[in-house]
Amino acid sequence: MVDPRILTEAVEPPYASGGAANRLLAEIWDHLWPWSRNGFQRQRMVQAAGFALAVAASVAWILAAMGSMTPGAIIGWWFGWSVFEVAVRLGSKPYVKDGPWWGNRYRRANLMDMLCYVGFKNLLIGAALFLVLKSLGLVQV
């Protein structure tokens, strides 16, 4: 039987060779911003639509913070953004971390890798934002 790790292509993000502090800041940015310069040049229409959707999702969160959106609408927007983010990331940052979260090995992501990465990341971010809005009394459940 072939070891599945042999079949994955190792990738190095642009920030992987920097120092620990630079790598940490770049990785935070990498989690929050799905676009890249190369991605913009290769997928201009997808990237432009993704940027418009990101602005719309941000407006939805602002409306939620003002108490103008229901929890279901917020979840719907966040799910829609997550689906689109998978397509954006596959075109601009097609890699995921391989191994423990504190490591610095990366590999090329397939569709399932990206669905799991974006889904889990956005679940954590969405839950944190939702809890903040709820604790401030801006969202009623």
Overview of the structural elements:
There is one protein chain. This protein has 141 residues and is mainly α. The protein has one domain (8-135). It is 62% helix and 6% strand. It has five helices and three strands, in the order βααααββα. It has a three-stranded antiparallel β-sheet, covered by helices on one side. A hairpin with an 8-residue loop joins strand 2 and strand 3 (106-108). Helix 3 (44-65) runs antiparallel to helix 4 and helix 4 (71-92) packs antiparallel against helix 5. It is globular, with a radius of gyration of 17 Å. It starts with 9 loop residues before the first strand and ends in a 6-residue tail after the last helix. The mean pLDDT is 80.
Q: What is the straight-line distance between the termini? A: 51 Å
Mean pLDDT: 80
Largest sheet: 3 strands, antiparallel
Strand fraction = 5-15%
What structural class results from the helix and strand content?
Answer: mainly alpha
Order of helices and strands: EHHHHEEH
- Read across the widest sheet, the strand sequence of neighbours is 1-3-2
Individual helix count: 5
Radius of gyration computed on alpha carbons: 17 Å
Strand segment count:
3
